[in-house]
Specification:
By secondary structure, the chain is an all-alpha fold. The protein contains 8 helices and no strands. Helix 5 runs antiparallel to helix 6 and helix 7 packs across helix 8. It is globular.
Length: 191
């Protein structure tokens, strides 16, 4: 089903105001996009994952529904939040897997622009999560842009809209974030 932006925005605002029926009407409108985000997230997971795309969408939905009141002004913010929830679910599963297996079942993490990441430098999704947390501490905007763009599957335009910045600013901040992350994951910390 196509994403009717004004309809989605209206339903998000109603849901943010506490209208649960708006949430129920919203999900069919964004379900395909959520599946695309989940599929992309699962593709970046360096552990053999027992979750499939549908299960990840449903687990993310459960977390979103259980969250206390959240402010969702538009589609971009909602997709950014959904992407973050999916990432957190996968990080939690990866940490649980590592605790149980101590590294068993790992495979190479291959992230389009991050092909320079080797198994020695980045063994788990938990390591990547820690690097992203350090980036977030240095620059929340850069951390969120990087997460939304590469790990959440949002377009650069959607990422910029979700962050409330211009496209030019998003491009500049994303370049800087990618450079920082490259050095960080290679063990050449800047901060």
């Amino acid at each position: 089903m196509a994403l009717a932006s004004s309809e989605v925005t209206g339903l998000l605002r109603m849901w943010s105001a506490g209208d649960e029926s708006a949430r129920d009407r919203l999900i069919p409108l964004v379900y395909d996009r959520l599946r695309a985000l989940a599929h992309r997230r699962l593709g970046f997971s360096p552990v053999e994952n027992s979750l499939n795309t549908t299960e990840l969408v449903h687990e993310a939905y459960i977390r979103l529904v259980q969250a206390p009141r959240i402010d969702l002004p538009d589609r971009a913010h909602f997709l950014g939040l959904a992407s973050d929830v999916m990432r957190n679910l996968l990080v939690d599963r990866a940490r649980s897997h590592l605790t149980a297996k101590r590294g068993g079942g790992m495979r190479r993490l291959d992230l389009d622009e991050f092909e320079w990441v080797s198994d020695e430098n980045l063994e788990t999704v938990a390591d990547l999560d820690e690097a992203l947390k350090r980036l977030d501490a240095l620059s929340t905007r850069q951390g969120q842009l990087l997460q939304h763009r590469y790990f959440g599957g949002l377009t650069l335009e959607e990422s910029a809209a979700a962050m409330g910045v211009s496209l030019a600013t998003a491009k500049r901040e994303l370049r800087s974030a990618r450079a920082w992350l490259a050095l960080e994951l290679k063990g050449e910390r800047l901060a």
